[in-house]
Amino acid sequence: MPARLPEPTPEGYRRHVIAAVTRHDDSLTIEYDGRIFGGIILAELPPGVAESIAPGTEVIIRTHTAETGNPGTVAHMLVPHPSEAGWAEIYEDY
């Protein structure tokens, strides 16, 4: 099977690489670019996605602006879907 091409980065998102993952009973905490983010709820992830979140996995993140919430806080987080084309959502701040 040929390697998949990287998905394009949607406008307003920035690419990062996950440095570390801590698995808790019902959630994940990831580290990227010297930052720590917790709140990825395992039960809300699409099938197979939790297993694909590991060090070296690319993650794209959109942060809030003054118009959408608390500026600089994570608004939306996606990783490449492990079995389908496109991105899999792993966090959204409603």
How would you characterize the overall build of this protein?
Helix content is 4%, strand content 45%. The protein has one domain: OB fold (Dihydrolipoamide Acetyltransferase, E2P). By secondary structure, the chain is mainly beta.
Order of helices and strands: EEEHEEE
The assigned structural class equals mainly beta
Question: What's the helical proportion of residues?
Answer: under 10%
Regarding CATH, which class?
Answer: Mainly Beta
SS strand fraction: 35-45%
Which parts are unreliable, with pLDDT below 50 for 5 consecutive residues or more?
A: none
How are the strands ordered across the major sheet? 3-2-1-4-5-6
Gyration radius, in Å: 13 Å
Overall morphology: globular
Q: Report mean pLDDT, rounded to a whole number.
A: 92
- Work out the number of β strands: 6
Quick gist of this model?
This protein has 94 residues and is mainly beta.
What keywords describe this structure?
single chain, OB fold (Dihydrolipoamide Acetyltransferase, E2P), six-stranded antiparallel beta sheet, 1 helix
List the helices and strands and how they pair.
Elements: E1 14-23, E2 27-32, E3 35-41, H1 49-52, E4 58-63, E5 74-80, E6 87-92
Antiparallel strand pairs: 1-2, 1-4, 2-3, 4-5, 5-6
